[in-house]
Amino acid sequence: MELCACKDVRHKSIEECVFAPYLPANKPEKYATLCKEFDISKLAKHLMGIEPSLRHLYFHAEAHLRDPVMGITGLILHLQRQVQDLKAELKIAKRDYMMILEENHRHQHLMIRSPL
């Protein structure tokens, strides 16, 4: 099994490390992000009891480092704006598609009615 990135949190075996499934040795930036945002030894003790998803904590920590004021809320608001923008673009694309279909239908109808 690959070693965990949290080499300074000492465990007798890799199976004992609560971070091992989430912090592989080839992703040290994830561990560094958690260390910047949280007390890693307290986090390890906390995880021993409940073992929540570290991915959520990593995203929370990363968002807070990028935007200390809004944190994860800022990311959520940004994603909600993107969804709204994409919905508006989709509505426009559907309208344009319907206009093209109507134009093609009118053109075909005129071709059928007009004598050669």
TrEMBL record:
- Location of the LOB domain: 1-97
Taxonomic classification: Eukaryota, Viridiplantae, Streptophyta, Embryophyta, Tracheophyta
Which residue ranges does UniProt annotate as crossing the membrane?
none
- Organism equals Camelina sativa (False flax)
Q: Which family does it belong to?
A: Belongs to the LOB domain-containing protein family.
Region forming the signal peptide: none
Which chain positions lie within coiled-coil regions?
Answer: 76-103
Task: List the InterPro entries hit by this protein, alphabetically.
Answer: LOB (IPR004883)
One Pfam family this sequence matches: LOB
Q: Which UniProt keywords apply?
A: Coiled coil
Its recorded name reads: LOB domain-containing protein 6-like
Under the heading PROSITE patterns, the entry gives: LOB
The gene designation is LOC109133336
